[in-house]
Amino acid sequence: MEEAKAYIETGILELYVLGQLDAREQQEVEEMATKYAAVKAEISAIEVAMEQYAIKHAIEPTSGLDKQIFEKISISANEVNTDKGSAPVNHSSINHHSLNHSSSINNHAAINSGSAINHGAKIVPLNADHAASTIKTLRYALVACVGLLVVSVVALYSTHDKLTTANQQILALNVDKEKFASTVSFMKDENKDLQEIATIAADPTWKAVKLAGTKISPQANMMVYWHKQGQHVMVDNTKMALPQNDAAHQYQLWAIVDGKPVDLGVFDATAEPKKLLVAMKEVGNAQAFAVTLEKRGGSISPTMEKMVAMGGVSI
Amino acid sequence: MAPNKKISLTEEDLVRALKDREKIAIQALYDMYSGALLGVIFRIVQHSEIAEDLLQDTFIKIWNSADNYDSSKGRLFTWMINIARNLSIDKLRSKDFRNANKNQDIENNVDFIDQQRKITFNADTMGLKDMVTALKPEFNSVLDMVYFKGYTHVEAAEELNLPLGTVKTRIRMAIMELRKHFN
After folding, report:
1. Tens digits of per-residue pLDDT, A227-250?
2. RNA polymerase sigma-70 region domain spans which residues (chain B) (predicted)?
3. Do the chains contact at A58 and B86, CB–CB below 8 Å?
């Protein structure tokens, strides 16, 4: 009895009831329990206490859970029953064997189906849903990003295209503007000249000398304005009808002063003159004006056979 | 079976019915012990849905392994609760359970906390709390770690930084107190 008491006081029986012992220790406890009634009684007392403790801590399961369990058990029980029925052997030991065999298979089936339902229906989808929805969201975000990128690239390209076009237009407009500016300045000059011509025509101190064609160019004629006091001489390009001169030659204007020719400078006869009025060299006294065709830059004395126009000053 | 008419059998009848694969045995076991088993399972896994799944697994295993129960080695309930505890600890240590816990978002945690509160303020448990406080807390905490939290007594010793002998003594003292209380 002393041995039993000492054994009880080691506390091993409590660990035995709590399932804390390995197989060898369990066997030892079981041997002691068969040997000593006091040990067996002690184990029972511990078990009852723990059972009470667990019952005090009980949590009521959800109603209907019992039905689920009974259904699962019924399936396996029915399989066992049909197995029993289908075995036409009366020998009890064979019958017992086949029962054990099929029940162990059913163990597996029931546990597997039980765990499959638990995992499949309740736990795994919770995780899968989270991961799947996150992946789904990320996938949508990626697609949206790619879409935005494509739109941005297209927009950028079209903007770049428009910018190039705009730059080209600005360049063209600048060229146009310069053209207009030069046209405007040309027209301003032309307008000034025209006003001067009008002034000259209205001013009695200016003399308008009409030069007529000679024998070598009967069609030629032109107009020279002369201001005697101011000694100004102008050639009017608007009233000029001379054959166009080539690059090697120019027309030269002469004043006939007391029978002698005086050089008044050279000018060109073109279809589109740059100026309407061309100022020539000054002369204070002249009886007539004449034009000859000379080499470019003019000659010291006129080439009389190349005289194209001449006109006297009317007093 | 009417829901309020619970079946209760003597232990001897229960064991015989279970071994003979009579369905009434499992119904009686459920009526008598499902709450106690769920209490232990829930305290180990701390998740009510998983706990109820494990309770199902426990009953199926009880049904299928009835042949392995040897009444000479201990009470039926001790055998059942060890099945429940082993399934729960296996679940607790399984990879998918740890992942499930890791991935719990805030909403689930709120539910989880609510579930815990529900149990903390359970009227039945309130009375027990008083009883438990009457016990010396250091003895009781070791017993609860082993019985309700899935620790082995060796792990409990490591966790509490106590010698194994002290842990064994405290478990014994706590159970002695319980025996005094229940007898």
Report:
1. 888 888 988 888 888 888 888 889
2. 29-96, 135-180
3. no
| Whole-model pTM over 0.80 | no
Q: Per-domain residue ranges for chain B?
A: 1-98, 121-182
Q: Which of B59, B125, B172 sits opposite A11 (nearest CB)?
A: B172
Hey, which CATH number is domain B121-182, 1.10.10.60, 1.10.10.10, 3.40.50.920, 3.30.710.10?
Answer: 1.10.10.10
Check: CB of residue A214 under 8 Å from CB of residue A309: yes
Q: Which of B107, B75, B54, B102 is nearest to B10 (CA)?
A: B75
Listed by start position, the domains of chain A span 1-55+136-197, 206-312
| DSSP secondary structure of chain A | -HHHHHHHHTTHHHHHHTT-S-HHHHHHHHHHHHH-HHHHHHHHHHHHHHHHHHHHT--PPPTTHHHHHHHHHHHHHHHHHHHHHH-----HHHHHHHHHHHHHHHHHHHHHHHHHHIIIIIIHHHHHHHHHHHHHHHHHHHHHHHHHHHHHHHHHHHHHHHHHHHHHHHHHHHHHHHHHHHHHHHHHHHHHHHHHHHHHHH-TTEEEEEEEE-SS-TT-EEEEEEETTTTEEEEEEEEEE-PPP-TTEEEEEEEEETTEEEEEEEE---SS-S-SEEE----S--SEEEEEEEETT--SS--GGGEEEEEEPP-
Which residues of chain A fall below pLDDT 70?
1, 76-130, 315
Q: Looking at domain A206-312, which CATH architecture does it have?
A: Sandwich (2.60)
Which of A43, A60, A73, A83 should be substituted to probe chain B, the one whose Cβ sees the most B Cβ atoms within 10 Å?
A: A73
pLDDT at A299: 87
CB B92 within 8 A of CB B86: no
| Selected residue of B75, B86, B176 to mutate for chain A interface (largest A Cβ count, 10 A) | B75
